[in-house]
Amino acid sequence: MEPTAGRFELHKVGVSGIRKPLTVRRSDRVVTLTTDFEVAVDLPSTRKGSDLSRNAILLAEIVDETVVRPVPSLEAACVAIARALLERHPYAQTASVDARAEYFLRRGIVEERKSFEDYTLLGAARSQRTGSTGPVAVTQSIGAEAVGMTACPCAMETARDALAQEFPQLRDEALQALPMITHNQRNRTRLVFDLPEGAEVEADELIETIEASQSSPTYAILKRGDEAQMVIRAHRHPKFVEDVLRDLLRRVASEYPKLPDSTYVRARTVSEESIHKYNVVAEHQASLGELRQTSAV
Amino acid sequence: MEPTAGRFELHKVGVSGIRKPLTVRRSDRVVTLTTDFEVAVDLPSTRKGSDLSRNAILLAEIVDETVVRPVPSLEAACVAIARALLERHPYAQTASVDARAEYFLRRGIVEERKSFEDYTLLGAARSQRTGSTGPVAVTQSIGAEAVGMTACPCAMETARDALAQEFPQLRDEALQALPMITHNQRNRTRLVFDLPEGAEVEADELIETIEASQSSPTYAILKRGDEAQMVIRAHRHPKFVEDVLRDLLRRVASEYPKLPDSTYVRARTVSEESIHKYNVVAEHQASLGELRQTSAV
Amino acid sequence: MEPTAGRFELHKVGVSGIRKPLTVRRSDRVVTLTTDFEVAVDLPSTRKGSDLSRNAILLAEIVDETVVRPVPSLEAACVAIARALLERHPYAQTASVDARAEYFLRRGIVEERKSFEDYTLLGAARSQRTGSTGPVAVTQSIGAEAVGMTACPCAMETARDALAQEFPQLRDEALQALPMITHNQRNRTRLVFDLPEGAEVEADELIETIEASQSSPTYAILKRGDEAQMVIRAHRHPKFVEDVLRDLLRRVASEYPKLPDSTYVRARTVSEESIHKYNVVAEHQASLGELRQTSAV
Amino acid sequence: MEPTAGRFELHKVGVSGIRKPLTVRRSDRVVTLTTDFEVAVDLPSTRKGSDLSRNAILLAEIVDETVVRPVPSLEAACVAIARALLERHPYAQTASVDARAEYFLRRGIVEERKSFEDYTLLGAARSQRTGSTGPVAVTQSIGAEAVGMTACPCAMETARDALAQEFPQLRDEALQALPMITHNQRNRTRLVFDLPEGAEVEADELIETIEASQSSPTYAILKRGDEAQMVIRAHRHPKFVEDVLRDLLRRVASEYPKLPDSTYVRARTVSEESIHKYNVVAEHQASLGELRQTSAV
User: ipTM of the predicted structure?
Assistant: First the structure.
């Protein structure tokens, strides 16, 4: 055995950018997710190297085989991989799996103009040995990212004031509710739940929560009338990134009653401003318990 | 000498993704452009390989030395490199240089709120031997990409019609000129001129031509009143990508009288739609002569 | 009708970055390709704008429906879309479709260690009206990109010479065939065929042609003995990018006897050098007829 | 004042992807870094929105002005911005600045073949009010990323064993030290120090530490003899990612005696494998005190 004095343990050794088709069984259909994985285990100071070929073998066994036997979800695949990593790397105490996949849902502004919209799914799992002979504890994360639209509430007010110089009718009470011009942007919002063992949630619900928090979701197919309807809707729900994020957190606090308070929530929203070359961002992290407490005031 | 029967000539052999700081002297200042180069020469069937180390040496000599002796422009550097490539690769008949750099200009909606806005510069050069002993012919390209804003003219009309149901005042003549809500987007427009030998143009002029063709340029610093002014301006110049591109071509036809008809113009505009997850694009290529002819009708 | 004097025709107006799951029936299985589309039509000077919503509707009809009725290939989907574009945009004379998809094949250095390897597929189609009432002509392109490995032949020689100073045994005839150290790199090679109407080829064949032209294909799962075997194989087939490209062209010239001479071949290979921070590239374009002629010498 | 019951505080509201030229004075020269900033402050529940225009104004004042008065370093600029953020956003308790810049150093395998090599610099700062009237505490981070080369030690051994079947001379003692073929890769290593207030370190030193930990640094210009020398050097220092990371941590523990034990060290190394399509990674985080303790054993 090699001398290990002065040798560092390492938190993570593994493979990244390994792409695989993952077949997932949803309630109503079977879908194949083109998925990008990073998997790793820790390396104790007593060991020179991690046996990296085991990672690729294990991913092949678990992921490639979903063609024949689909898994229930991206995060379920992550959990299975995180467990297997500790089995195949007996020297490791912890394992991590991070996955990112493109995902499609049939959506539309009206039933007859539904088509596939693209989203991003995020799955992750962390496994840890509890003592040298104890069972393995595994936690999982599930996340989603959805692109929607925002309309700025501030420019709406200042534009109304500026235009009222030229069009005094805008000061009439009858026109107070007229949606006013402002700037709109493509908004990209991400929501991730770190779940305690046993807790479950559907990625599709996360996507719905995100889209409900933007000024409007967006759709591939819009006829002229649909476009007007979406524009009016967005301008009647003008939102700063701060508003998108707070509305998201409020929904999270109230719409997931089955999730325990110990669920940890991470959210980030990015607006690709039309009036600037840069983006505007807001982010927050808190336990679901904290969010519920604030929300209940 | 190796047998070359059945060996293919190759159009291009070279290096790509080679990054260098290029120092350029502008009218009023010296700037350093972080530049990405691809340079290549052709390879005749009589030769097994291209001497690639010469490319890196030559780039070091020409580009690294601009720290001491700045060049007048990105495209001037490309021309110098394209000439040197044929000197260093005596077996080659043609050489190509493609460069892309980030560029900054001080701009502002008003003088006192100017700051650096970021753009992309594109430079290129092609050199060719005219016979085995003749002189080398070199052409150059100069291009720029600028991000601005567009407002959709179509949704503006349909939104007005839809809102007029609820707000009949919108049908009053006095309110016909009131800018109406629509959707806005970040618009990215590229303009490139392939110049015959001897012709010259300033990259800053291309950026001005692009920005004048969008619904509005965008700025880093906008106070509340500025934002209203920019939003109103954009909504008073609503444009489809088709309009951005045609306005751009019209300006190109009229604003560059010194450039010869043989200048070749390539333009592409991309709107990152706020109401869709995908982009809308328009592109066109034509000689400046053709554009002038159409424009003159 | 609006006045059109002085209005420019535009070569392309359409949508880009529209992502869809495309279901394709292969000989032995059904696969879903996460595909990125750009589709466009030309716009005559007589028309103010292109009806962009038709593009999204048509993509939904053709692509989304492959969930139920898979298409035979990515390029077949492109052809169907290019035809439909001219039907839905009666004012257009030409239409273009460009698609890019991630693709997986089960591959392995030995049968028992096969797993999914990732590749890129490229499909395209161009449609054109032949006269105002004539039939529509459609051409298609099919391409693939594969990542493999190269070993540099030049450093192999110079390293042998340098090491022979220290290890004179290397000059013995018995050790002349000993594979010598050099530098290896990740190599990314793309091959595209522009096919005349009626011609057909399988994307999997293109991937095989590419991988046979690199120093070695690469695999996800390699046990220690496999790794040695692959390293030896790559060092016994050392190749410059020039060699990869020429070997590729030679194979193309001989291995596709069913394709007509008018097939146009485009190839580019990029080595992500381990000894430099930049890449080395080679590219060539020629008709299959020209390649066959050179190859036959 | 608006009611704030039930309104969430937010950890971060700001701007991202804002690009600026930052002029920095180094010991021997003045350089302009093309820099990408993300800046943000927290938002208390008592406030509806963050005043985002102040961020752009402040960046313009601090960064744009370095054209005239260069700052000593990227991280010094981050610290100045983090302080100014709390001055301009009096409602905020914390501010964060993250910056990423391309950076060039003149390097060469020999003095006469030096040229600019490209690196990435990472700077960051966090500021926090200590009580409502107390002074502001600021910490800074400084990091660098460098691309080099690794040679795999494992394949070297297995290749030797496999080749010894065919070339028994390899078993001679005289040839034991002959560098053996293996696979090489482009390696990308990042090192970041989170510094307590008052501590200082030079980015150039971090780059030297990284390059010394790889099998070999890489250079733009290599003549044939240089290439052989670099290949031999890399094969005489074969390293797994685990070795690169541990060597890096060992150097960090011994080569920065002026930095306090409370300095926090974050390191990640990625090898873009030539024998796989995916990457191999290793990462670790620890206080400098911990690293010194392990290293001293």
Answer: 0.94
